[in-house]
Amino acid sequence: MPKSETDYEYEPFAQTEEYQRVNREIVSGWVETIASQGAGGVRALVDVACGVGTMAKLFLESLPEAWSRPTVTLVDMSPQAIDQARARVEPEVPAVDAICGRIQDVELPEAGYDVAIWGNGIHYLTADEQAAALNRLRPAIREGGWLLFNSAFTQESRPPETLQFYRAQISRAVRYLQSRGIRRERVEARPSSSTFLPAEHYAELLSQVGFSVQEVRTVAARLYQTAWEHISGFAQYAAGALHGYGTDVAAQAMRLAVGPAIEQYGVRDTEDRPYIQRNWLAAIARVG
């Protein structure tokens, strides 16, 4: 996942209640599927684009108590992220290894893992990079093993009724930048993270690489103001939404625009708190 080391210092969105809830639901579903297919345990797990280890931690927490804990390999571009992830998972597993680099470039042991998790990261890559990454992963997963990944950045992630929220946020952010005299810069191309590919793309890509697609489904989550402020502060998100503006000022403008936009277009829960629904893609594929 192409983030700088400083992006991992706290990773605030990953610590929000909403993020934890939706990803715990997704991971629990993955583990239930694996168990239902007769697996008696997971010996070795690789966590791709591990960040600070949130997904690996959720996966370990979801394993049946009777299963022994797997060894874990952490893969990420950031040494700082790997250090934080290691600190979170090391007390719970027999061994932790780490590989620093992009998943499409790193060397993984052939048939070295029963399960590969790729949480909330595949959308950062172009379609060609995704294919390269999956071609790198497939031989590393043992026969009968599993690839599990999710993303909140697909064409299906934004229900039609929520689009007015995004338009209002961008409009307010642009007006804020204009009020400060900040002009849009000329750039050659939009960042790949701003291209939302459909769920069908991921299903077809998995098949092309040689995986057996078990399930591609959508999991809905309610995201409240604080969560949206964290998301809007991501460099990739802000750069995609405010294409052509400097990343730092774009992120600031997008964060400031969340409150008014969600107040205007958010759905109210039973406590009268406004939220915007976001859909996560959750995919399960198998080798063999």
Description:
The protein is an alpha/beta fold and 288 residues long. The chain has helices spanning 17-36, 54-62, 79-89, 127-137, 163-179, 199-209, 225-232, 235-241, 247-265, and strands spanning 44-48, 71-76, 96-100, 113-119, 141-151, 212-223, 267-268, 274-286. It has a domain at 5-159 and 191-224 and 277-286: 3-Layer(aba) Sandwich (Rossmann fold), CATH 3.40.50.150. It is 39% helix and 21% strand. Strands 1, 2, 3, 4, 5, 6, 7 and 8 form an 8-stranded mixed β-sheet that branches. Mean pLDDT is 92; it is low at 1-10.
Layout: helices, strands, pairs:
Elements: H1 17-36, E1 44-48, H2 54-62, E2 71-76, H3 79-89, E3 96-100, E4 113-119, H4 127-137, E5 141-151, H5 163-179, H6 199-209, E6 212-223, H7 225-232, H8 235-241, H9 247-265, E7 267-268, E8 274-286
Parallel strand pairs: 1-2, 1-4, 2-3, 4-5
Antiparallel strand pairs: 5-8, 6-8, 7-8
Helix pairs in contact: 1-2, 5-9, 7-9, 8-9
Can you tag this structure with a few keywords?
288 residues; alpha/beta; Rossmann fold; eight-stranded mixed beta sheet; 39% helix; globular
- What overall form do the CA principal axes indicate? globular
- What is the terminal-to-terminal distance? 27 Å
State the fourth-level CATH superfamily of the domain at 5-159 and 191-224 and 277-286.
Answer: Vaccinia Virus protein VP39
- Range of helix content: 25-40%
Count of strand segments: 8
Instruction: Report the sheet-strand fraction.
Output: 15-25%
CATH architecture of the domain at 5-159 and 191-224 and 277-286: 3-Layer(aba) Sandwich
Task: Give the helix/strand class.
Answer: alpha/beta
CATH class of the domain at 5-159 and 191-224 and 277-286: Alpha Beta
